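Chapter review: from sequence to fold.
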Amino acid sequence: MDQTILLALLQDGLTTGAIYVLLAVGLLIAFTVTRVIFIPQGDLVSFAALSLAAMIGHQIPGTLWLLDVLCAIALVLSLARGRLKAVVPYGIAPAILTLATWAATHYGAPTPITMFLALIIVTALGPLLYRFAYEPLGESSMLALLIVSMALHFVLIGIALYCFGAEGVSTPALTDASFDTGPIEVSGQSLCVGLVCLVMVGALRWFFVRTLYGKALRAAASDRLGARLIGVDHALSGRAAFALASFAAAVSGLLIAPITPLSYDTGFEIGLKGFVAAVIGGLASYPLAAAGALIVGLLESFSGFWASEYRNIIVFSLLIPVMIWLSLSRGDPEDRA
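The token string follows.
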């Protein structure tokens, strides 16, 4: 392996690792607040890319119709309980979004506008999925929540297959620029991925440290019962956590689609790699999860060069030593003795 290949593999690993950072952070936010392992987060990665590709092809994405149906059901249930304020988030806002999406697809809006609309559509799906799939379960066991996550994953890939078909899609890169550094040529897309990752991580840190809503989510994550006692709405905090996780998934989908084609089911594999990174962080530590995401990205890149057919096996095998280490470090000292 010469220097050029080494640097190229490093660039590829860090680029995909940055995307896994976003997914791992989003998954940790959902898990710490709600105890839900948000497996369908990977499906939302595909949803974002497929929605953008559909709008670029002058078609209204099926995800918009899914969002409208879920909002209509939520509106009917809210009005039945006398909650008139629900008309704005579940009635007026989806109508405006549907009209804007129709105009963008019909008149051929610029790519940044369609990317923004795809981002809104997929992000809005997160709180609705939480409301209908997880919120009714209340204080169910983590096993029950995991089973629901798996069931929801299969429902979403079925919807994606029906709405978008089985063919993979690629979307335009954020920039076509490239920079010749001597040994290798650094793509502008890779730099954009890294920059977006840094901006999002910094913005999330500011949100959780400086804002009242962020502090409320931190309280719900550290002590759910205590947060309820001081007035933190459990349902609202869960929906907010899923909105952030869905936003991270949507951004990841828009960033990775220009690099690798995505189909209705490929997002699941990407989401699992973000899950591996979150497990490295013990499903609790954001810095360790971010470091684990970069490790996963680099391991995937180098294993793809040396043994491409075993790349996924090598990456997922990383869970074995991590789980052993976590079980030993968190076990009862008397049991370890």
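Two observations follow directly from the output. Residues 332-337 have pLDDT under 50 and may be disordered. The chain is about 75% helix and 0% strand.
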